[in-house]
Amino acid sequence: MCSSNNLNFSTLNMRRDVFEEALLKNLTVVLFGLIINYINGTLLYTFFTNVNFQSDSRYILYMQLIINDNVMVSMMVNLHVLSYVCPNLNVSLCIVLLLICENTHKNTPLNLAAMSIERFIAICHPLQHPLICTVSWTYMLIACIWVVGAIPGFIKVIITFVFKPLSFFSSGRMCYPINIFQSVYNYNTYYATNILYLCFVWITLIYTYFRVVFSAKAATSDPVSSRKAQMTIRLHVVQLLLSMLSYIAPVLDTALTVLFPDFRSAVMFCNNIITNILPRLLSPLIYGLRDQKFKKHMKRGLGAILFVELLSERCFW
Question: How far apart are CA 232 and CA 224, in angstroms?
Fold first, then answer.
C-alpha cells in the first residue's frame, strides 16, 4: 500500500462502496492498525525502559524496524480512511503523506540489510564488533537509512515540480501515487530505485548468510551463536520476501480483477491487507519472542505477548 504504484484504495474503483461495505473495510483496516501498533508499542516500551537494550546495536536496529513499521501502518490506515472521508485531498498535503509512506516502505529492506551486517560482524568478527557497532555509529546508520530511503520520493517531487503547474499543488485530488506522480520519468525512477535497492539487499543477505555458515563450519566462533545468526538471517530473507509482495500487488490486482470483475473492490482491498498490512506482524514474531533476553523483560502488555506468542507457535514452530 505504501509502495509507489500500489496504494490501491477503494477510491481507485469505478464505483463508490456502499455504506456497509465502506464501514467494514475501514473498521478492518483500523483494527489491524491498532493490533499491530499495540504489539509493537509493547516492544518499544520494553526497549525504552531497559538501559541494557539501549546500548546494544542489535536491539537499536530492531527498534528502528519496529518504529518504521508503526509509522508505515499508521500512514496506511490514515490514507485509507482519508480516501473515504476526504476523497479529494489537497495535493501538497497528499505529497507529504505519500513521501512518508514511501520512505518507510523503502526503509524496510535497507534495515534488514543493516541487521544482517550487524549479525555478520558479531559472529565473524567478534573482537571488532564492540568497536564497529557502537551506539553512535548505529544511530548514524539509521539516519543514513532514512536519508537513502527518502531519495526516490524527493526525486519524484522534483520531477512533478518541473512538469506540473503551481496550481496543481493547491488543487484537490484522490490521494494515491498514480494520480499525483503521473510523469513517465516517475515510473522509471520507481522501477530503477526498486531494482537497485533490492539487488543491494539481496546481495547483502546472501553474502552475510554464507559467511556466517562458513564461520560456523570452521568453528571460529560459538556454534550456538552461529546457528542463531543463521536462523535470524534466514528469517530476514522470509521477511524481505513478504515485504516484496507489495511490488507484485499491482499485477495480482490486474489478474484477479480480470477473473472476478464483479468483486473488484473486495479483491483490491484483500490484496492490500495481505501484501501490505499482515507482513508488519512478522517483526514481533521473528524477533521479540525468539529472543529470550528480550522476552523476559516484557512485563507489561501481557495480552499482546500471549497473542504474538500464540501466532509465533502456529507460524514458525
Answer: 12
DSSP 3-state of 16: coil
Percent of the chain with pLDDT over 70: 79
pLDDT tens digits, 155-188: 999 999 888 888 889 888 888 888 888 888 888 8
Give rounded-to-5 percent helix, strand, coil for the chain: 80, 0, 15
Nearest CA to 150 among 204, 193, 180, 191? Answer: 193
The secondary structure of residue 280, as a DSSP letter, is G
Alpha helices in 49-132 (DSSP H): 51-54, 57-85, 91-124, 129-132
Contact between residue 249 and residue 178 where contact means Cβ atoms under 8 Å apart: no
Q: Are 70 and 37 contacting, i.e. CB atoms less than 8 angstroms apart? A: yes
Q: φ and ψ at 173, to 5 degrees?
A: -145, 160
Question: What predicted TM-score, i.e. pTM, was given to this entire model?
Answer: 0.82
